[in-house]
Amino acid sequence: MKPILEVKNLKMYYNTRSGYVKAADDVSFVLNEGEAMGLVGESGCGKTTTSMAIMRLLAENAEIISGHIYFKGKDLLKLSEEEMNKVRWAGISMIFQAAMNSLNPVYRVGDQIIEAIVTHEPNVTFEEARERVASLYKLVGLDPKRMDNYPHEYSGGMKQRAVIAMSLSCNPDIIIADEPTTALDVIVQDMILKEMSRIQKKLNMSMIYISHDIAVIAEVAEKIGIMYAGKLVELSDSVTIFKKPAHPYTVGLMSSFPSIKGEKKELVTIPGEPPNLLNAPDSCRFAPRCPFATKECWEKEPPYEEIEPNHFLACFHPQNLRKQVSEYARG
Amino acid sequence: MPEVEMVDATDVVLKVENLKKFFPVRKGVFSRVRSFLHAVDDVSFEIKRGEVLALVGESGCGKTTTGKTLVRLHSPTDGKITFLNRDVTHLRSAVDRKWFHGKSQMIFQDPFESLNPRKTIFDIVSEPMNIQSEGSLKYREEKTMEILKRVGISPPNAFLWRYPHELSGGQRQRVAIARALVMNPEFVVADEPTSMLDVSIRTQVMKLMMNLISDMHMSFLYITHDLAVARYMSDYISVMYLGKMVEYGETEEVIQNPLHPYTKALISAVPVPDPEFKRKSIQIKGGIGKAIDPLPRCRFYDRCPFAMDVCAKEEPSLVDVDDGHKVACFLYDKKEE
Ligand SMILES: Nc1ncnc2c1ncn2[C@@H]1O[C@H](COP(=O)(O)OP(=O)(O)OP(=O)(O)O)[C@@H](O)[C@H]1O
Ligand SMILES: Nc1ncnc2c1ncn2[C@@H]1O[C@H](COP(=O)(O)OP(=O)(O)OP(=O)(O)O)[C@@H](O)[C@H]1O
Ligand code: SF4
Ligand code: SF4
Ligand SMILES: [Mg+2]
Ligand SMILES: [Mg+2]
């Protein structure tokens, strides 16, 4: 497997009046060619921040403190804005969180995608772009006749398909999909996710799926990163993450999720609430909620290390799943 | 005032018969023809004491409208609602209304919208007692502290004088639950109470509600679009499709052995949190529409992979096909063969 994207020790903080919000703090991972990776975590843990850093679409108060983002070997953080513009959409494109609501209501949907193409590829004529959009419509399961409709004439599922078509419009190597199906009903979600997986495999693209829903991620991703409070705390192939997670937060997350299949297991609750990331301390950020916290966890940050091949973890006390669940139940 | 109710543990708390709620819609700006959106159309069920009925289905199928009609935030277009053996369909007198609203409550989806931002937590939680003019101020304060503690807001006195914006999402939803439960209601409608919450907080709130329901022996209508959540929260499940109840049964029975083609498709589309599980979904065409002046036919007809001629001519009614497992579909209606 060949790496296509390497994020190394990325720190991106938001500078606010009250101090730094450490929203992506020392995040490292590798995405390989043709691979589908999932990024999971609760609201505010830094999923969108991490992907915005990769796209270098920074909020005004965002600061990249340190780190590297290698795309095909080049460090994106060192590119000029003009060079970065060539990477955006054609190299890495993004389906933004709630993107389907951001389609401009006064323009025809097809024209908005054509616009995206001709902006990034000035050599492409309007006719060529229109043809490309028609074939993208077919690819995502939309009738090309609908190109001339306005967003309000589309259902939620159709809008999401159009947004996916837009993300594919400049043949990217990587698509980052930020909560691509969160607002959709389950039957539509199922269709869209199937479609995305099919296209990803067909075009041998790399994908990063971002979601708070581990069931969705279980189905689409081969590799999963778990984020907690600005930190990537565990990363491995999806079976390892689900079947033998080592981080106490991952364990809690896995056993707190209701499933419609299999035996009806008792749900585990993770006590407490996610921390405020403002001026986050240099200790394990999960310590206040962790049944295994020791003095060490309160004093320093656990390093992010490869504990077995392709299994990365930031925790001083990795333990096995069963033991941890019963700890939770007691706690 | 109402007489003392003599109800034992197996009693039916809420009985709903042929409930309808239609909304008038105009087809065009100048159109004089009145059309109706059949948001809830001929729905019947019962909830016994201590029982949780989950109402599931896709967006727009009529879950919230059903819930709001039951607690009388909407008045029904037709049908009959019986609550603790009293007809509450119309609630004509102020005394009846006060009695009913003291015993039934609703919890809403969005804890950011449902709590008045200008009121303190004490005002919010004690309001139902004020409306019912229950007890002295001291009594209300004690009751408020007690219920806040029950829902995990502790120490309660640290929160009494705070405002909703000073609380996290999970805390706000706990406050909304406290407000709904402070009067010991007999019947509660919870409309997607955890869908805005984070995963770890969601499980906390689900467990809290499960404990409260069994401790306080309430009857619950739990509205959710998430079938996995419904599986954990409910004793019975009712599936709605475009205003119709298409299936009803014991939760595990409906999940393991769905009968209606729509329920089958719905359940098969739920993602499973297990990367090794190979899920096969039943593909159905099209999307969900709106039941505006619907034809007398099965509302799932256009999308159903098993549609037959009869389905286009008549509406299937909900029939008991197996020991309380009910379905509205001609595939199971033996009379039609
Ligand atoms: N411009 C900003 N200034 C200050 N803080 C910010 C800014 N943008 C985001 N944050 C904070 O950074 C943290 C991470 O936010 P981010 O949007 O990356 O989270 P997320 O994991 O995508 O959450 P969600 O699941 O809710 O989309 C949050 O605590 C958020 O409040
Ligand atoms: N006050 C109203 N006036 C007119 N139409 C309404 C009103 N309230 C709801 N509707 C319509 O009635 C139908 C049922 O809506 P309802 O909100 O009950 O659905 P729901 O199942 O709760 O959906 P969701 O899962 O999106 O909350 C929808 O078509 C909706 O647009
Ligand atoms: S480092 Fe310590 S506190 Fe943090 S997750 Fe591991 S055991 Fe828990
Ligand atoms: S009644 Fe007919 S159309 Fe309706 S669900 Fe059953 S088979 Fe399908
Ligand atoms: Mg986000
Ligand atoms: Mg609703």
Describe this protein's structure.
The complex is a heterodimer of chains A (331) and B (337). Chain A has 331 residues and is of the alpha/beta class. Chain A folds into two domains: 3-91 and 174-330, P-loop containing nucleotide triphosphate hydrolases (Rossmann fold), CATH 3.40.50; 99-171, no CATH class. Chain A is built from eleven helices and twelve strands. Chain A has helices at 47-55, 81-87, 109-120, 126-139, 156-168, 186-202, 214-220, 238-243, 248-255, 295-299, 321-330, and strands at 3-16, 19-32, 36-40, 62-71, 74-75, 92-95, 174-178, 206-211, 223-228, 231-237, 305-308, 311-313. In chain A, the strands form two sheets. Chain A has an eight-stranded mixed β-sheet with strand order 6-7-8-3-9-10-12-11, with helices on both faces. In chain A, a hairpin with a 2-residue loop joins strand 11 and strand 12 (311-313). In chain A, helix 3 runs parallel beside helix 5, helix 4 crosses helix 5 and helix 5 runs parallel beside helix 6 (186-202). The radius of gyration of chain A is 21 Å and the shape is globular. The N and C termini of chain A lie far apart (42 Å). In chain B, strand 9 (236-241) and strand 10 form a beta hairpin. With 337 residues, chain B is an alpha/beta fold. The longest helix of chain B is centred in the middle third of the chain and has 18 residues, at 199-216. Chain B has an eight-stranded mixed β-sheet, with helices on both faces. The complex binds adenosine-5'-triphosphate (ATP) (2 copies), iron/sulfur cluster (2 copies) and magnesium ion (2 copies). One magnesium ion is lined by residues 63-64, 191 of chain B.
